[in-house]
Amino acid sequence: MSQFFNALVSKGFFGKRIRNGVHMFSLILFVVVIVCSVSNLLVPEQSIFYVSTYTITLLGKYLCFALLALSVDVVWGYCGVLSLGHGAFFALGGYGMGMYLMRQVGDRGVYGNPDLPDFMVFLDWTELPWYWFGMDQFWFAIAMAIFIPGLLAFVFGWLAFRSRVTGVYLSIMTQALTYALMLAFFRNEMGFGGNNGLTDFKEILHFDLQSNETRVGLFFLSALVLIIALLLSQKIMKSRFGRVVISIRDGESRARFLGYVTDHYKVALFVYSAVLAAFAGVLYVPQVGIINPSEFSPINSIEVVVWVAVGGRGTLYGAAVGALLVNYAKTKFTAVLPDGWLFALGALFVGVTLYLPNGIVGFFEQRISFLKGDSSRELDSFEVKDKKSVSEVEV
């Protein structure tokens, strides 16, 4: 096996690591999604090749988490901004979609009220809050589900980066942000369902959410959005903007000395990452059937950081790989020992930090580089090909 692997490397099979890594992952993902979709819709249930609707939904959820991990990798791996609050943008996007889905229930709810969601009827509300108006329109709801997290990221990022808050202080502030939102959304008077959140969804765009076809469609859409986000993020990081961002990560004071307004670059990247997280939340809710304040929990945001670290930060597709692997492990582990997952997650993070500091993807890239005899430069898992130093970036 080792000789076979060496032969592949020597023939250039793994040649252009960063340029092809995202493309190869995207191609593999696309093929797997097509195969799983066909196996669910066309293969008889009695066949060993049949993929159940439960599995399709579970994989769709994993893909949403992969998109969320990508959003964190964009700011952490390439700009050095460790956010522990991206779960807030994910949850806000999810609530936006949840509001639309609740408006589609109409008179099919428990109380049969065509104008008010069940939880509002239960709380004796007589009319919709102003911020619920328009949420029965799909495109308006999607726009708000993306705009609100983006606006929050812009305001927070502008205030934080203009004040030059960095390092652990910024991480704590992002964690405080998501915790404050969690406490707010737990309150019934906020109008978002309180502790129970939003659930009992019926349909999306007149498609039954419980049907196999709808589940497969959402699964395919999640994969498509993830692939587009990967390719777009790669293009951004290879652009002049991306080189400046990497220069800020490696030496913000030098970038500022050369005349770059580093705050603007960091805010723009932070907003972009928040939009990706919001998209993940939008795709997540119709597949799992519920959104509640627990999605704001700071532990969720910390878990995302672990996914990125396991996969390999600064590689884009490594974040997606980490999210898929860790969540698959979580599904299997919690089925046997549900109370022990957080301990296992902590042990995993410590192990990766000590023995795989560049993550799984970074480890294999280093191995490939070593076998190719590329000793001209050290392989850093969160560098991009043809990276320019801060002094080489054109002003």
TrEMBL record:
Transmembrane region(s): 21-42, 48-68, 75-95, 138-161, 168-186, 216-233, 267-285, 305-329, 341-364
UniProt source species: Marinibactrum halimedae
GO molecular function, one term: branched-chain amino acid transmembrane transporter activity
Name of the protein: Urea ABC transporter permease subunit UrtC
CDD domains in UniProt: TM_PBP1_LivM_like
Transmembrane helix listed as a keyword: yes
Phylogenetic lineage: Bacteria, Pseudomonadati, Pseudomonadota, Gammaproteobacteria, Cellvibrionales
A single Gene Ontology CC term: plasma membrane
Localization, UniProt: Cell inner membrane
Keywords of this entry: Cell membrane, Membrane, Transmembrane, Transmembrane helix
Membrane topology per record: Multi-pass membrane protein
Major location category of this protein: membrane
